[in-house]
């Protein structure tokens, strides 16, 4: 694509990077076929190619964002399906991240929009605030229709309330770390994150048990927090970089003491942490450290595949539909690994039709764009139900929440199923699945 940035514009490293991306697009339109919003809306401006043109025009002209640009960029899920499809290697993620930051700096959103975004940015990344907000949403559930009828913010408030779980998010009772036989075979960090430990603390507990069976020690460095993805996707660049720097500081100290890997159990966070090297490339104090952190970051399933396989500790055989989160499939290009692990643990794994299309979760998208997200969620659940699974497995808490609200089939993190198969407790939500309760554990195959 021909561009016409002025030499002075190209002094700006962000514009220079975006110009390079824009020039790599040959406007062939292949990406439109796999874009969820184009699929639903049929509007070129809701396709990757249309958005690329809008971003080019906005950045080249050095203009503030217009309502039209904001409408179509806001509707983008950042699912990155277009990046998987694109034959020219257009790095749409970095381009749309730049566009979102430009919108945040130059566009005056309505008061209602600003309010919802400020609430999300100041609550979700902080565990205790999020726990309180979920408790409030739970109390408000019987009145969700009333909130939904409020002008301006009603639909989004209703989406927040409807997505909240049906139980109070109780504070975690700390449990002793699983015993790791000495000497440990390796040392890793598991990112605790922000929303996941409040919504489903069982995920990282299962990961710790699995790692303990493999003889891997897990350390929890002080100072780590939210990965920054939630605010990053809202264009709040300074806040995202603040989270990134805090995590880099926390982890690099451990890396200097022999940390082998930073493990992530939410693929949305994994995509962002793997991008820290890029996000902090212009910060001389952090560029090198952030690159090292990104290089050491692995999804939990990537790391497990690098270890010797564990013998299954109990018979399994249940039919599992594997939903690959967009951040796993398109963001990190992790395709077969989680399915291989599930099959090795004895599950019958089935692929989901239209597996490349987003479920509509996409960080806070299902709150900010509830109508499109709702349609995508229903479409995803229907596709999953088509393969008649007993259980759904996925690797991202956002998808668990989004799909879980649209189907009665239990949905779990992949690691919860792997942990159960190798001797862990029965995951919450699986109690009703036929035959699971009675299954004996083969104690001789437990390694922890
Ligand atoms: S597929 Fe790639 S090169 Fe073709 S229009 Fe889409 S982004 Fe541009
Ligand atoms: S990231 Fe997803 S929603 Fe956005 S343009 Fe690409 S395919 Fe479409």
- CATH architecture label name of the largest domain: 3-Layer(aba) Sandwich
Beta content comes to 5-15%
Named CATH topology of the largest domain: Rossmann fold
Distance between the termini: 57 Å
Oligomer: single chain
Task: Profile the largest sheet.
Answer: 4 strands, parallel
Structural class: alpha/beta
Count every helix, treating DSSP H or I runs of 4 or more residues as helices: 24
Shape: globular
Query: How are strands sequenced across the largest beta sheet?
Result: 2-1-3-4
Number of strands: 8
Heteromolecules bound = iron/sulfur cluster
Mean pLDDT: 93
CATH class of the largest domain: Alpha Beta
What radius of gyration results from the CA coordinates?
Answer: 22 Å
Q: What is the total domain count?
A: 4
What portion of residues is helical? 40-55%
Contiguous uncertain segments of 5+ residues? none
Provide the descriptors you would attach to this structure in a database record.
four-stranded parallel β-sheet; 8 strands; binds iron/sulfur cluster; 4 domains; alpha/beta; Rossmann fold; single chain; 448 residues; Fumarate Reductase Iron-sulfur Protein, Chain B, domain 2
